[in-house]
Each structure stands twice: as C-alpha cells, then as structure tokens.
Design the sequence.
C-alpha cells in the first residue's frame, strides 16, 4: 500500500512576525505543489499558530508541544483544545528537546498523546535514542519503550498519527543517520505496529528526523519504511524546505 508522505517543519524557538509570514507562504506553496502525495505542515511557536493558520490553505499547522492538562492552574502551558481552536490540527509530542531539556517522562508523553487525541489533534510522536544508548546497542529497546508507553492500543484514527524516529545524536548536529540506520529502526517500528494491528502497520506514517536537508532527503526517502521527515534547521530556509517537500513528492 502507498502511504501518503508527511513532511513537517519544526521552527522551534525561531521566527519574527515577518519571518513566519514568509516561511508560511513558502510552506503553503510547497504543500500546494506536492498536492495529495505529501502532507506538508509547519510547527510554529505557539504565539504564531493562529497567524500561520490564517495564512495557509494547503499546509497543515502543528503545535510544537501541548499540555497534558485541559485547563487550570498550569502557568505557561498550552491546552490541546486551545491549539485546535487557534488553528492547529496536529501537534508534536515527545520531541527530544522536550524530554531532555524539560524533563518530559514517558508517562507525560503518553498523557499528552491522549490529551491531543481527545481534543481532535493529529499527533507526530517523536522517539529516538541518545548516542550513549546507540553505542550500548539499546536503540530498539529505547524506541520500543517510548512507543509502547505512548501509543494507545489500538490507536485511534490511523491517518492522524505519525511516528517520527529522531535519533537524538542527529538532531541539530548536522550528523544524519545513514539510510541503512534509519531504515533499520523504521522497519522495526513497522514490525512493532504489524504485531499489534495489520491495518496500523500499513497506514501509520513513520517519518525520519535528524539533520534532514535538501541534499540527503533523496536517499532517506528512498528507504522502504521512511514515509517522510520532521525537519528542524532546514525548515527555516524556505527554498530548502520546498526542495525537501518536492523530493518527498517525487519519491516512491
Ligand atoms: C527536529 O527538531 O525535530 C529536527 C530533526 O531538527 P534538525 O532537522 O535541525 O536536526
């Protein structure tokens, strides 16, 4: 079965008002050009979600993070329903920067995934091992634990979940996993899904993140189980982001 590819740009803590307008316009053009073959989205800082959502038609908008709580005394947090109302229809959950810098545990990530689904947001669930974990051959044990604890079984609507395999050592470092390393973990994730639900294995998109750029996208997207990318740094360069989306559209 051919899965629609997914390319999301994660802008992290970047973007003036003028920059996000320009990036949103380019991402929307890239989404329109890729049409149905690629779901293209961007994840702006929370304060810009509404602005970006008002400026795109073809591209999807994701929150970078949501709270596990719906409302109440949680200063500084963003509720899933609020993100939805502001115009997001997806959210990232469990990005390694959230896990490492802000202490998000597997249990918190699981609660955030549930909160997102309850509100009606699609979820890009980020998983991945550190360099130390890879070096002691714990990659699959870590990734399996992160998915096991975060994804409800059976998952709700399968086209509203993407699993982003993002080796922590490849994020923002310029060091990309080789296509073989990416395919190896992606096929194990696919096997994990297959063991639970054949439909999930066929439909859930497994995307790669970690220093993806216009030069390495072709070989990564050529891997059988790589269904797209979560792009950080290169998504701040509209020409590169558009090239990655075009590469995804041309792949397979
Ligand atoms: C990310 O933030 O999810 C990411 C993959 O970043 P980068 O592409 O910069 O490595």
Sequence:
């Amino acid at each position: 079965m051919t899965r629609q590819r997914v390319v999301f740009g994660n802008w992290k803590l970047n973007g003036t008002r003028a920059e996000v307008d320009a990036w949103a316009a380019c991402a929307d053009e890239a989404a329109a050009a890729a049409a149905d073959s690629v779901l293209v989205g961007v994840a702006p800082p929370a304060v810009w979600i509404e602005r970006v959502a008002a400026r795109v038609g073809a591209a999807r908008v994701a929150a970078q993070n949501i709270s596990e709580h719906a409302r109440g005394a949680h200063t500084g947090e963003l509720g899933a329903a609020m993100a939805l109302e502001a115009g997001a229809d997806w959210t990232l959950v469990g990005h390694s920067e959230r896990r490492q810098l802000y202490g998000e545990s597997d249990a918190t990530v699981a609660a955030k995934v549930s909160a997102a689904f309850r509100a009606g947001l699609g979820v890009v669930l980020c998983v991945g091992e550190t360099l130390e974990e890879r070096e002691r051959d714990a990659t699959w044990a870590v990734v399996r634990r992160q998915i096991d604890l975060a994804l409800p079984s059976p998952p709700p609507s399968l086209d509203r979940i993407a699993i982003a395999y993002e080796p922590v050592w490849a994020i923002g470092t310029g060091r990309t996993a080789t296509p073989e390393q990416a395919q190896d973990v992606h096929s194990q994730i696919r096997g994990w899904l297959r063991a639970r639900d054949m439909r999930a294995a066929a439909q859930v998109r497994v995307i790669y993140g970690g220093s993806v750029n216009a030069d390495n996208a072709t070989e990564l997207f050529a891997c059988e189980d790589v269904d797209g990318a979560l792009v950080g740094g290169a998504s701040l360069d509209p020409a590169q982001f558009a090239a990655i989306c075009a590469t995804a559209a041309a792949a397979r």
Remarks:
- Residues 10, 166, 171-172, 209-212, 230-234 surround phosphoenolpyruvate (CB under 6 Å).
